[in-house]
Amino acid sequence: MKLPFATTNEGKLREARHVLTPLGIDVVSLPLQLFEPDVGTIEDVTREKLKQVKERGIQRVMVDDAGIFFAAYSHFPGILTKRVFERIGYKGIFKLLQGERRDAWFEGAIAILWDGEVNTFSAHTYGRLLEEYPPGVTPEPGFPFNPLFVPVGENRTFAEMSPSEREQYSYRAKVLKEAAHWLQERNGSKVAD
């Protein structure tokens, strides 16, 4: 089964393929530039992206949105994650969190349009941000918080883990697997676990 993924983020595309290929789903790149609203929830953003793709006449597609949330600030940065990081970078993030709680979580959602039917899947990954700015830290393309984020139950950041190790904690892996089961039900086949 082929599943077009409307994203320009190569890291997200790689992760989707890593999770879905063994489940019999061939993730096909659909590199569309989509407008991302700056209000609402992560799920609201995925629904808006899905609407934009649907308006282009596409009937089978997956879209994705994600953000990091700092426990020290209500609903922030959330859907503004990319914009905030682009403007203040690591230096600004560490200044913003100086003297604050380091608890944080990633929240992600996937929305799928499949022959007129729509479903949204969402999940969280809880953890904390490093206390100190790591020397020489560079953003991982598409995932700038991976070098700073330590999931609950770990002592390493996402950037220090292999893709398979990350998958154990990844909200995206969880929603991709849920989406795979939903798609296979639509297609009349069973997903391998």
DSSP helix fraction: 25-40%
Number of domains: 1
Roughly what fraction of the amino acids lie in strands? 25-35%
Shape descriptor reads globular
Distance between the termini: 16 Å
Radius of gyration: 17 Å
In the CATH scheme, what's the topology name?
Maf protein
Enumerate the strands of the largest sheet in spatial order, edge to edge or round the barrel: 3-4-5-6
SS field, number of helical segments: 5
* Beta-strand segment tally: 6
Mean pLDDT: 93
Look at the structure and give the CATH class: Alpha Beta
H/E element sequence: EHEHEHEEEHH
Tell me the structural class.
alpha+beta
Q: Unreliable runs, pLDDT <50, ≥5 residues?
A: none
Largest sheet, strands/sense/barrel: 4 strands, antiparallel
The CATH architecture? Alpha-Beta Complex
Keywords: Hydrolase
InterPro entries: ITPase-like_fam (IPR029001), RdgB/HAM1 (IPR002637)
Protein name: DITPase
Family: Belongs to the HAM1 NTPase family.
Key phrases:
single chain; 193 residues; alpha+beta; Maf protein; four-stranded antiparallel β-sheet; two-stranded parallel sheet; 5 helices; 32% helix; globular
Could you characterize the architecture of this molecule?
- The chain has 193 residues and is of the alpha+beta class.
- It has one domain: Alpha-Beta Complex (Maf protein), CATH 3.90.950.10.
- Helices cover 32% and strands 25% of the residues.
- A 4-stranded antiparallel sheet has the order 3-4-5-6. Strands 1-2 form a two-stranded parallel sheet.
- The mean pLDDT is 93.
- This is DITPase.
